Amino acid sequence: MAETPTWFMIATFVVLGIFFVVDLLIIGRRPHIPSTKECIQHIAFFVVMALIFGGCIWFFAGSSPAIEFYSGWLTEYSLSIDNLFVFVIIMSNFAVPKIYQKYVLSVGITVALVLRGCFILVGSAIIERFTWVFFLFGAFLIYTAIGLVRGDDSDEEYQENAVIRTMKKFVKVSDDYDGEKLRTTRNGVRYWTPMLIVFIAIGTTDVMFAFDSIPAIFGLTKDPFIVFTSNVFALLGLQQLYFLLGALLDKLVYLPLGLAVVLGFIGVKLIMEALHGNSLPFLNGGQPISWVPEIPTFLSLAVIVVSIGTAAVASVVKMRRMDSSKEA
Predict the structure, then answer these.
(1) Cα–Cα nearest to 161, from 200, 126, 187, 123
(2) Which end of the chain has fewer CB within 10 Å, C or N?
(3) Residue 28 — very low, low, confident or very high, per pLDDT cuts 50/70/90?
(4) CA angle, residues 307, 308, 312, in degrees to nearest 5
(5) Which runs of consecutive H residues, i.e. helices, occur in the chain?
(6) 153: which residues sit within 8 A by CB, 6+ positions away?
């Protein structure tokens, strides 16, 4: 397998930086409700760019890292769609005016990218020194998958976390929004606006999302470059996806089950890799367990595509049946 050329990585970061600035800091800063056409064009552009980028990795670095990228991107993208459920609930719970939701999402996605970048750096350092951490990552992903099957993430109400509850005890928050402002004046008194609370809610929620997404992507590749680019491409265009799916999110009833299969599979894969490279003294005398098979990258990609694809198709079929029954 060829190594990814340094110039290619530098060029990638420059292009992604441009994408990021235009998508989130320029378009995202313009308060408006995007049309369906705008959303579809925006999403299609970034999907095509991700497919082309994977092809470039295949050409410059080989098929294996390219398949790892496609697997990671699809997994992170699917997790991002699932996370939109929570974003919808947060926006509704804090009554964010629809015209400002795009701006809130741009800030939230920016925070998510920074946090994931930090998690990736820490995760790479830990994995290089402590391979046994795969046992923890694998167990956590399996636990998360079981939770998805049970419906543990299906709460229809957003519960304020401890950070927000504590902040409300010490700062004055106004009842109304004042555009995109974080501070406002009411009767000569300075208040924080609810926009600050929304940003904190989105930011702290992004931290929880990272605990799912980062172990999942490290279960597919150990290359920090592929891990980071997979996350960036999964986040770009997420604002438009939010508005496009909107009312349809609650109809993607089988998406959690598809994600459960993916996360469970990656969790098992991580544990198998940990066993294959075992160094824990109480397991096989600290020696690798050679009989444990290695799961090839193409099989991981196949499982992800089939699981998410089946969940999406099944959701659409059920949605159409429900619509038909209502008409009848």
Answers:
(1) 200
(2) C
(3) low
(4) 120
(5) 6-20, 36-61, 63-93, 98-129, 133-150, 162-170, 194-218, 224-235, 238-245, 255-276, 297-327
(6) 82, 85, 147, 256
Closest CA to 62 of 134, 100, 99, 8: 8
pLDDT tens digits along 304-320: 889 888 988 888 888 78
β strands within the chain, DSSP E = 183-186, 189-192
Q: Would you state the structure tokens that stand for residue 55, as one six-digit string?
A: 């092809």
pTM: 0.77
**Alpha carbon distance 137, 114 (integer Å):** 21
What is the Rg, in whole angstroms, of the alpha carbon atoms belonging to the chain?
Answer: 21
Do 79 and 64 form a contact (C-beta atoms < 8 A)? no
Answer for the pair 244, 81: CB distance below 8 angstroms, yes or no. Answer: no
**Helices of type H across 94-187:** 98-129, 133-150, 162-170
Distance (Å, rounded) from C-alpha 111 to C-alpha 196? 14
Token pair belonging to 86: 């929570």
The predicted-structure confidence for 59-115, as pLDDT tens digits, reads as follows 999 888 999 999 999 988 888 776 777 777 788 778 888 888 888 888 877 877 888
Structure tokens at 200: 């904190």
Smallest CA-to-CA distance from 230 within 109, 75, 108, 114 is with 75
Q: Is-contact 210 4, C-beta < 8 A?
A: no
Per-residue pLDDT averaged across 187-203, rounded?
82
> When comparing pLDDT for 162 and 262, which is higher?
262
Amino acid of residue 13? F
Cβ neighbour number for residue 4 with a 10 Å cutoff = 18
User: In this predicted structure, what is the pLDDT of residue 70?
Assistant: 94
- In whole angstroms, what is the distance from residue 33 CA to residue 14 CA? 29
The three-state secondary structure class of 173 is strand
Structure tokens at 132: 């046994």
Asked whether the predicted pLDDT for residue 247 surpasses 60, the reply is no
